Amino acid sequence: MIGMEYVRITNIQDPLFAQLHRLMQEVFPPEEVLEFSLWEEPLKDNGLRVCVAVQDGKVVGATEYRYYEEFNVAMTDFTIIGKAGAGIGPFLWQQRQSDLEQWAAYAGRSISGMFAEIYNPYISSESYSNITPMNPYVRREVLAHMGYKRLDFDYVHPSWLNDGEAVSGLDLCFLPYHGQSELPAELIVAFLERYYSVLSNKPAQWLDMIERLKNMRTVSLLPM
User: Fold this and answer.
1) Spatial distance between the Cα atoms of 210 and 193, rounded to a whole number of angstroms
2) Computed from CA positions of residues 29, 8, 188, 139, in that sequence, does the dihedral angle turn out positive or negative?
3) CA 116, CA 150: separation in Å to the nearest integer?
C-alpha cells in the first residue's frame, strides 16, 4: 500500500516494538499478551517473524508468524489491524505470504499449510477493541473465506501468562495449501508440543487434550 512499510522487529529496544506492544494490549485480553521484557529472546529467534506495518512512523498493524521446516507448516500467531479502511489487512497478508514462500523455498520446501488459533465468538464472550476488522465475528468470517478450516476437536491452550490456566473459546484451525481434508494427529501433537515448549506451566486440560490426540490417527478439517 502507498506509504506503508513492512518492517521486521528483532529487538525490544526498537521504538516500534513499544508501539506494537501497546497495540497488542489494546486489542487482546491480558492472557494473550506476553509481558514486555519476555519478548527479548523470542525477537532474536530466526525462526520467528514479528513484523509491523508502519505508516508515517506509526505502527498501524502487525503480524507474527513462524515456519517449521521439520513439519513443513507455518503458524500465524496474530494479525493486528490498527484501523479500518486503510488496506492494512491485505498489505500484511501479501507481505507475510511472500516472506513465507521465500522462507520455505530456501529450505527446499513448499508449505503444506498454516495453523492459526481463531476465536469462536459463538462459544466465547471475549471482547476485543472497537476496531471493526478486529471484531471476532468479522475476523472469523474473513479467515473462513480465506480457506481456513476448523480442526475437529475441543481445543484449549496454555495461558501466555504461564500461570497454569487453560484458555478456551478458540478453535485450532488450518489453512490447507494442497486441498487436505484431514491432518495426521501426530503432526498436530508435535506442532503443539513444539509451539508451547516455551511455557513451563501447562494446564491439566491441555495435557489431557494432547493425550486424546495421541490416541487418534487423523483429525478432520471442517468448515468454520
Assistant:
1) 8
2) positive
3) 9
Per residue in 22-62, pLDDT (tens digit) is: 998 888 877 778 889 889 988 988 889 999 999 999 999 99
For the stretch 125-153, pLDDT in tens is: 555 556 777 787 888 888 999 999 999 99
Do residues 53 and 92 lie in contact, with contact meaning Cβ atoms separated by under 8 Å?
Answer: yes
Do 140 and 224 touch, CB atoms closer than 8 A?
yes
Give the three-state DSSP class for 114. strand
In terms of residue numbers, what domain contains 64? 4-222
End-to-end Cα spacing for the chain: 30
Give the closest residue to 139 by CA, choosing from 195, 60, 221, 84: 84
In sequence order, the 6+-apart residues with CB closer than 8 A to the CB of 90 are 1
Verdict on whether the full-model pTM lies above 0.85: yes
Contact (CB, 8 A) for 50 and 66:
no
Q: Compute the distance between CA of residue 81 and CA of residue 86 in angstroms, rounded to an integer.
A: 9
Specify the number of domains making up the chain.
Answer: 1
Contact 123, 154 (CB under 8 A): no
What CATH number has the domain bearing residue 82?
Answer: 3.40.630.30
